[in-house]
Specification:
80% helix; globular; 337 residues; mainly alpha
Length: 337
């Protein structure tokens, strides 16, 4: 832990700056800033060697603890607030978003893992969702950074474009708020988009947005099982190639401990009446730990590798952003949310 202290100190300072900027302008995702700052320092200056141990700790253990504590943001009350019709609508929109973007990623000849990160980020809760599922994918640091940057860009564009479209279509406060909650990615960007419209729109937007966040739990669980199968298959292949027929993959847990922690925290959050101050503190600690992990991730990414990914994911993301906004608006208007 002593070896990690200098690196953790540097990372903590970067995270603090990112969250301070977010406090000044809530529409800016602090997690996206954490990735960006880590990337900028490593590429335009030099990530110090004394920070190596702290960076390794933040990128794995702290990130996973942050994911576990994300369970505190899952609230079944938000599902009750929108009713069965609302839940079905949210599930359909999120499902169509994820699988639609996976299909687009194939069309654009992109990595399936990058498509998955973008799809879940668009569908659930932006950079937070990307950070949550990344350990359960085969995505590289470069793909993760690219996905977070793209999702943050599209979410920011929504703040300016959705209200213009909403006024042109003559949407009501409730309809526009529900649309913002269904179509925009990061929570801060959802609130910023709806705030441009009205206070009533913000109320509708937050309820729909929190319902989307609830879907993070089953998605993380499904992806952890998927990743375990991949590791099992990889282990079997390695064993066969080496002539060793023992199944080393049995050592791979069915559900990783941090996913179990996520589910446990979500269960406690919904079963027990947790004091508001304690709940808010857990949510903040979760975000700070995720921020630390994303600073570490950003510091390991090099511009050369980002450039090698090419412009296709960016073009695909913009196309997906338009489609997701259209599908979300249609779903909200058809169901009357």
């Amino acid at each position: 832990m002593v070896k990690s202290a200098p690196g953790l100190g540097l990372i903590a300072a970067v995270v603090a700056i990112a969250f301070q900027i977010h406090n000044f302008q809530p529409a800016i995702s602090p997690l996206a800033l954490c990735v960006a700052f880590g990337f900028v320092i490593a590429n335009f200056a030099s990530w110090p060697t004394f920070a190596a141990a702290g960076t390794a700790l933040a990128s794995k253990k702290l990130m996973r603890i942050g994911v576990a504590l994300l369970g505190a943001q899952v609230s079944v009350l938000s599902l009750k607030a929108i009713g069965v019709k609302g839940v079905i609508t949210v599930v359909l929109v999120v499902t169509l978003t994820i699988f639609g973007i996976l299909a687009l990623s194939k069309l654009f000849k992109m990595s399936g893992e990058l498509g998955l990160l973008i799809g879940v980020g668009f569908g659930v809760c932006g950079a937070t969702a990307v950070a949550a599922i990344r350990p359960q994918t085969r995505a590289t640091e470069e793909e993760t950074s690219y996905a977070i940057a793209l999702i943050s860009l599209c979410g920011t564009l929504s703040i300016f474009t959705l209200p213009l479209i909403g006024h042109a279509l003559g949407l009501t406060d409730q309809t526009f708020g529900s649309w913002a909650g269904a179509a925009v990615h990061d929570v801060g960007q959802v609130i910023a988009t709806a705030s441009v419209w009205s206070d009533d729109a913000v109320k509708s937007a937050v309820v729909i947005k929190l319902a989307r966040v609830c879907l993070l739990a089953p998605i993380v669980l499904i992806l952890s099982i998927r990743h375990r199968r991949y590791l099992t298959s990889l282990s079997q292949t390695n064993d066969q190639n080496s002539g060793n027929l023992t199944l080393k993959s049995s050592k791979v847990p069915l559900v990783p401990f941090f996913v179990i922690g996520f589910i446990a925290v979500a269960t406690i959050q919904n079963v027990f009446d947790i004091p508001t101050q304690l709940h808010d503190a857990i949510v903040l600690v979760s975000k700070l730990l995720l921020g630390a992990g994303l600073v570490a991730l950003g510091s390991s990414v090099r511009w050369k590798s980002i450039r090698a990914i090419g412009p296709r994911p960016m073009i695909m993301g913009m196309v997906a952003w338009v489609i997701v906004a259209g599908v979300s608006l249609a779903a909200v208007q058809i169901t009357g949310l």
